[in-house]
Protein: DUF2237 domain-containing protein
Organism: Phormidium pseudopriestleyi FRX01
Amino acid sequence: MTEATNVLGGKLENCCTSPMTGYYRDGKCNTGGGDYGAHVVCAQVTEEFLTFSKQRGNDLTSPVPMFNFPGLKPGDRWCLCASRWKEALDAGVAPPIVLGATHASALEYMSQEELKQYAVEE
């Protein structure tokens, strides 16, 4: 298995381990065959985005213990579905992202320029 790369062409960095994120709950926005949502965008969620997501039927603020999901609050980092981040971008409510922790496959959904506009300063 090859090592995952980020949208900048480097090694995929950790997104968050508290709460533990990623499709594989490994702290990284890795993806694979079973990840139909493409959870590849490392975002720092905002209140505005969380409200938007809930209105679209995906409540990210309520805990779901059976999936080891604590519920998110503004400022948390989380591996979002690429299509949801793009939808939020188009609606004007996209949260900032961490480029080094966003999987290269995100570029199948949006441009590097779009991603860079929302980059978190580290």
Summary: Residues 85 and 94 are 6 Å apart (CA to CA). Strands lie at 39-44, 77-81. The first helix runs from residue 47 to 55. The chain has three helices and two strands.
